[in-house]
């Protein structure tokens, strides 16, 4: 199995690539959102910034009174094997920060760039990556502190605006909530716990963190909370002792602060028995371990979402046209295909378009359409089995072990062939479903004509009145009869497809994989370069740019799928 660092590190890498490509929002769930991350939630002055700095081991966040965090900060920690620590911002990709005081200033400047030098907030995130041998792989999102009242210079809606922003992150099912509460505050009034309880009532996504334990009144302690007796969560509470203001003013090193924190818990008469699971270092490891577990649990759904997006991107590429091949033969083929496409449209106009559908056909067509999903799922299931067999066969072929490049080439060609077979299988099973829709069995119509409709009897009335309740009864009877006939026909179609779809899948995928898995690969080896026909295939530059962007996203998703698959089962 993959190590925790490699799996979480891969997620960080994919999230960063998504951000660079702008693939982190919009309609539906993006790949960025599908990957788990940790949102840091707490009231103003709850110690959020100090907790983050303790986890990172660096003093790098802006400080001050009131709302200091005015934009979400997406903080990605990348554990390195060795070397100097440094930071990079997404908005300044060519600049590497080794001075973390400069990182603090850059966060402030970048915040002001969007919000101005005001106390307003913005939901546009700042993306910061820190590379260090002293961190664990994590993605943390620092959010503005929850507040109860607006202060001078803030809009009246600031309280609601902040809560809505925080809620937009923590309500996502893949978000782990780090709820920060000061120990010298009643847990029942904690803004972070209140919000976490609303979006995660079971508590399975929430980690409670108690700060400022050293600032509690003498004679009091927080053992009831830390031991889970005052407010129980599914995960253990973690106590944190941050640097004091005096330590901050003296620029006490974070490593020294961590040592002092350990000593505090180890020597505390109240918390000594909990020392092994207290402190910022333990918190970082706990979050990293849980994040790794969540990622593993989410791998099937992440892969499914990636495959769905790959299909959507491929469909969009098909719609706008695939890149023009460089060799003359392929270009000639493309030109012929474009001519055939024109010819099809032209013939449709000559034929007068598709005839309208009526009655039973419209009802049956709508019902049969629902068979397409399970049919395609059967094709995908066989495809994944064949793909795994390719991987195993390459690994077990002794003669290939000397030639890693050839292994890669064969694997690529085989998988490309399987994709073609899958597409052919998909077209075939969909064609089977559509055939059932396009032609209704003759016996079905004969049965309808053989059973004349019986209109419910009604008593004669003296005066001719408008249609009454008996007409409604007749109408209901007719509808029930139609529904019964449609259901019977659909059941017959279902029985037919249960037999024909497996045959089609085996024929199109398994049989072809056995007969011609590497046929194209053999042809490519001996292919010669031919004359180009690019002059006939000139394109709109905007269309080419759009295709390039889609191709980059497609490559990202394919790479993410392959890397997640490789790392998860290594």
From TrEMBL:
Q: Where is this region: Disordered?
A: 451-476
Which residue ranges does the record assign to the Dynamin-type G domain? Answer: 32-300
The record's listing under SUPFAM superfamilies reads: P-loop containing nucleoside triphosphate hydrolases
Q: Residue ranges of the GED domain?
A: 479-570
Methyltransferase keyword on record: no
Any Pfam family hit = Dynamin_N
Q: Where is the composition biased (Basic and acidic residues)?
A: 451-462
SMART domains found in the cross-reference section: DYNc (SM00053), GED (SM00302)
Q: Name the family the entry cites.
A: Belongs to the TRAFAC class dynamin-like GTPase superfamily. Dynamin/Fzo/YdjA family.
Q: What is this protein called?
A: Dynamin-related protein 1C
Classification from the root reads: Eukaryota, Viridiplantae, Streptophyta, Embryophyta, Tracheophyta
